[in-house]
Design a protein that fits this description.
The protein has 82 residues and is of the alpha+beta class. The chain has one domain. Helix content is 22%, strand content 32%. It is built from two helices and six strands; from the N terminus they run ββββαβαβ. The strands form two sheets. It has a four-stranded mixed β-sheet with strand order 3-4-5-6. The chain has a two-stranded antiparallel ribbon with strand order 1-2. Strand 4, helix 1 and strand 5 form a beta-alpha-beta unit. It is globular.
């Protein structure tokens, strides 16, 4: 399926789930466990899009804030103050 944005066809092989304030990439999952490949995918999105922070959410847990949220900081922004 073609995806259009402002009249242009987006020809991309990857798509982030949500981008917040053009700074944070949010990746949404509903999986048994978060594996290194899921973290690598988020890290790749951050690098390619030059975004400082990402959050990986797994909704297949009992407590989302304790078990299902993995924050990630792009290596190029890791030295910035919080």
């Amino acid at each position: 399926m073609d995806v259009y944005y402002k009249g242009h066809v987006l020809n991309r092989k990857y798509r982030q789930d949500i981008i917040v304030e053009n700074l944070i990439i949010v990746e949404l999952k509903a999986i048994d466990a978060i594996h290194p490949i899921h973290k690598a995918k988020l890290a790749t999105y951050l690098l390619l899009n030059e975004k400082p922070k990402g959050i990986l959410f797994n909704f297949n847990v009992l407590n989302l804030t304790k078990e299902g949220m993995v924050p990630w900081v792009n290596q190029y922004y890791s030295d910035l103050p919080a």
